[in-house]
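batch_manifest entry 22 of 60
target: Amidohydrolase
source organism: Nocardioides ganghwensis
requested by: lab member K.T.
priority: normal
notes from requester: please return tokens only, no post-processing; we will run our own comparison against the previous entry in this batch. if the run fails, retry once and flag.
--- input ---
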Amino acid sequence: MSAQRFRGPVLPDGEARDLYVVDGRITYEPQPGADTAAEGWIVPGLVDAHCHLGLDDFGPTDAEATEQQAIDDRDGGALLIRDAGSAADTRWIHDRDDLPRLIRCGRHIAATKRYIRNYAHEVEPAELAAYAAQEARNGDGWIKLVGDWISRDEGDLAPSFPAEAFRDAIDAAHAEGAKVTAHCFGHGVLPGLIEAGIDCIEHGTGLTEDLIDAMVAHGTRLVPTVMQLDKFPEHAAAGQERFPAYAQTMTDLYARMPATIMAAYEAGVPIYAGSDGGGISRHGNIAGEVEALVRIGIPAHDALGAASWRAREWLGVDGLTEGASADFVVYDRNPVEDLSVLRTPTTVVLRGVARGR
Ligand SMILES: [Zn+2]
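--- output ---
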């Protein structure tokens, strides 16, 4: 296979370089006779740290629809996906070199009748740890718990399980070598999860200063999915009539959302970008989440890092190092100065295969 040359400033440092792709791998050794495949700003393959392949509004999708979701994500530059829970078995994606790298969380685990229909294993507290261990064995090193959801009995957001059940589940997943993350909109569920050593929090709108300090102390990560949080006013409006307390909670959480996420960022909680594609959101829109992180106050270089080099490092996948798989995206402008270019990559290179616009 002949060598291809890509030329331009390479992020994160922006130093202009010639990057060569030989047999699907990156080298900075000059390759005489290499064709220049693209020039522009070169960014390590984008990462969608909260996305759902094989899921739509109604539950699991068939393989054809799932494939299209993965293609949409890839063409949007997301070449590594941490799937935050799927009701479909998406293991086959690992065998497809043309689809993004995938780190699966198995299926969501929720309390009985306390989550979106057809999404989760819905279990009782006594069953939670066993399901956590099962999904740890089924996934790719992560599991996903539904930390809280509306309780129709209480008429408000409430933890899905008692703190002790969560602790046992986290211990069970850790014993299987898997990390644990949880969907958390409200405050109540968070102290127990963070104290129990959960690895990551999804959404995190209920964080307070003391919990942010605890996350820093424990090394807990945060994937806020700001685009998903922007739907809180819709949830509040939908619940207003029957669940006014819930509507008020969602309204309050949303009013504080930018300040909450920025307090975590400023305290040093590592934040990553997640589009929540498939979780009632479209696929292929990691660019939208980078823009949303900037909108709430995260500097553009860091927001892009949250969707690229920082997230790759967190998830244990190489960046643009010598010998690494050639997974990167080329843009015709500097995305740090003009985020809108993230929507129109010039070239997406996955496992050394370049796809042009
Ligand atoms: Zn989600």
